[in-house]
Amino acid sequence: MKILGIESSCDETAAAVVEDGKRVLSNVVASQIDEHRLYGGVVPEIASRRHAENIYWVVQESLLKAGCTLDDIDAVAVTYAPGLIGALLVGISFAKGLAMASDKPLIPVHHIAGHIAANYITHDDLEPPYLCLVISGGHSHIIEVRDYTHYHVIGRTRDDAAGECFDKAARVLGYEYPGGKFIDAAAKLGDPNAYRLPKPKIPGSEFDFSFSGLKTAVINTVHNAEQKGEQLRREDMAASFQKTVADTLVERTMAAAKMLGSKKLAIAGGVSANSGVRTAFEKACADRGIKLYMPELKYCGDNAAMIACQGYYDYLAGKRADESLNGIATLSLDKISE
Fold first, then answer.
1. What is the pLDDT of residues 23-33, one digit of tens each?
2. Residues 84/44, Cβ–Cβ less than 8 Å
3. Which domain covers residue 41, as residue numbers?
């Protein structure tokens, strides 16, 4: 079974063809990073316009690279939530038109479920149930994956997501957007114990995250040094910041794994590409006898292969949408399991 996946929830216009949920035949991504870098972050209006310009050729290219035509496609899967509403609507509108014109089933896919499914592409042996940490620019969730289409959110961020915190810290340190890769590179040259940074906890919610205090601490430390004319070594701050984020993620996730008795853990999302985070989880899981799954780096960020992969499992579960499908900016993963 071949699924055509379409992803446009933020600033990547993506399309992919995936066979039987795991064999990626094509995965095309049109990035807008260079344009949004001028503004230090994603501008929703610009993102929507670029999606409208790119969506046709990206889908066409994905079919061409897969060596198939629309007639060979069994279903069309598209991200419908969560995300930037204008950006989502471009992908949804195109997918609806394509499905209706070709008389193919339309499968609505939750973006976070797609990130989780990226691990199925990389790891043939990964099967539910297991625990998954999804960490990206907009999300920080600890999720109990009960089966391929049913989830229970154990913990989530109460304010900034981990990826957003990376971008804000990078900006104040003078790095370009997106900041994650620059923080990662700088951290390898710095002392992770040079600065003591906070790891906020949520009273009564031991599995939830809060990164706004960490972001503020970095900003204040940098600004105070500038005001006093003191020299701040960026590499040391980058290393200290990255270690604090990684330690926080590991601490909460390991606590959830212990509570559930889980011996399988997956991580997913853009921040799962960070070398410091990956290393921290490798060590923590090895120490506890937990099997760790991580996607290939090319499937960590937003892409359509993960949407097509999850679309395959949603299709098998009987999930379908019609022409009334709409975009939803905010939708908990718990809601699609009800």
1. 999 999 999 98
2. yes
3. 2-116+301-337
